[in-house]
Amino acid sequence: MAQSVQHGEAPPQSVAEPKNVELVVATASSQRTTSKLAVVEEGVPTSTQHDSSARSTNTVRSTNLGKRALPMYVEGSAGHTFERNTWVMTCVLMLAEVMGTGVLSLPAAAAKTGWILAMVSVVAFAGAAAYSGMLLSQTRNEYFPAENSYSEMARKTGGDRFALFTLIMVLINWGLLLPYFLISVGDSIELIFYSEWLCSYQKSLIGAVLMILPLQCPDFHAISFISYPSAAAIIIAVICSLAQLETVSDVKTSASPDPDEDFISLYGSFASFIFAYQGQSMFLELMREMKDGNGFPRASFSAYLVMCIVYAVTVVMGYAGQGDQIASFLPDSMKDGGVKRFVGILLVFHVVVAYVVTGQPLHRFIHSKLFPSTVNFDRPWARLHWSAAYPLARG
Length: 395
Prior knowledge:
Elements: E1 21-28, E2 35-41, E3 57-60, H1 87-98, H2 106-113, H3 115-143, H4 150-192, H5 200-211, H6 220-243, H7 263-275, H8 283-288, H9 296-322, H10 338-370, H11 380-388, H12 390-394
Antiparallel strand pairs: 1-2, 1-3
């Protein structure tokens, strides 16, 4: 006999035996030790059914009470997957993913765009990126609280075709970013072994081996703990690179772009400032794992404020120090020695973590398609399935 049990209410009269029985366990994030149990008959509304607007609720389902129930976190309208990250953790994850080695190319970009366009870009794009995070957070929390990705929101606003188009575009974006990070790992490894000659495939192979262990982190919460030292590593690497710049006797800088520079080259340098703040493609996935999604704007503004300061200092000191003679990759301007190798080690570690953070949503998507029954489990076979999805997700 199916019953509905809720704290503070008497059970209703007996009803017919349901065909489909579902066990729903809702645990509020504000009271993690308190839970509500309800056995719900399909089609019969009860006061214990999950409220999709309560974003601090995790839902666990079992469709057969006669067998051993295996808890499975359900995404979409059912609720969050893992809501464990604070706004500080989310901020650090953004720093680890967005503030990559591109910051070390900004002084060279400034040499082509000139002081005015470079400094305006550093500040304006930081503000635009932070504001986009606030808009996405408001849109999700106020209008689509049950959705955890761009494709899910696209389905609500434009239907299935628009959702499919959005999903394809986001997956392409994630997929194209990963080779960039792999190349960056190779460039960073070259700083360590600058006195040795290594082929590109050898450097990429070394980078791929270094990524095997951190790639076993199945969610952002686990990755966040290695994101703290990763964010610190890139900042220390920038400081060391600037401190080791060789002095140039005749420094030439310009307030405006070089008139002899062609449009494609100038736009490429200008786009470097845009790309340096790129990370919006995974904002919704980051919100999904937050304890309180309303704290995302705080995380976004804090992360981009740090990036803006680091980028501005890097551009000013790099461009002012060597002018138009600045190397396209700042560490290449350093003197050979232990400090240069130390910077290479820091960059390798940082880029490996950035690769893991960037590829996590894509890896999760592949896992959900190959092994949907274990995508939200934390069990040995789920970890094995996660590893099995690696060649397609990261290949």
